[in-house]
Write the structure tokens for this entry.
Amino acid sequence: MKTTISVNLRIWRQRGPKEKGQFVNYHLDNVSTGSSFLEMLDMLNQQLVEKNEEPVVFDSDCREGICGMCSLYINGHPHGPATGATTCQLYMRRFHDGETITVEPWRSAAFPVIKDLMVDRNAFDKIQQAGGYVSFNCGGAKDANSLPIAKTAADAAMDSATCIGCGACVAACKNGSAMLFVSAKVSQFALLPQGQVERARRARAMVKKMDELGFGNCTNTGACAAECPKCISLSNIARLNREFIKAKIKE
């Protein structure tokens, strides 16, 4: 088995939000199959710097699949061909020697390109600020058994809470919908006692903010769940729809 490969990179370069972008071709030799995709991009940027050329701008932070910053569209898939993994968890052994790899930023009107492969995902922060929290008076820690929660509900809430807000669902959706993200955030509170007080207001506020920011509508094609690196269930969208309808009726 080969330990190094050569790859041809077709990378989107764009100087700014209002500039016209284009694909630029690069070639890399001796890429370790044990290196991550981001490490391969680091290798490319090192070579560009040595040639006095401008490096490729891309986002990354934890590089452990936790933060969701490493959001790249690779060969037609958000985060690349690996299932249940972020870009930083994608390794070069997934690719063949001499393969051409196309790398793009998220494509969504709500996520404008900042530069090259980096996009502005502040829209998710605004949705979260609209209602993705609970408000209560803090005091001494309660006994662990004072708020009984069924295991099925706790497990479902935890599964929803694993959403890292990377935006892969938006990038995968033909409509640029943020329903999977919003539904995961609404679900994690709707399933727990702590989220009941603001339950109706939360659903209304987050959906309203999502619409204001220009995200598209959900048509239930399921591409979002298929490409989600944390395997967030499509059933969350059904729960969000129920929560929103109940909230509107209550209103």
Residues 4-114 form a domain with the Ubiquitin-like (UB roll) fold (CATH 3.10.20.30). The mean pLDDT is 94. DSSP finds eight helices and seven strands in the chain.
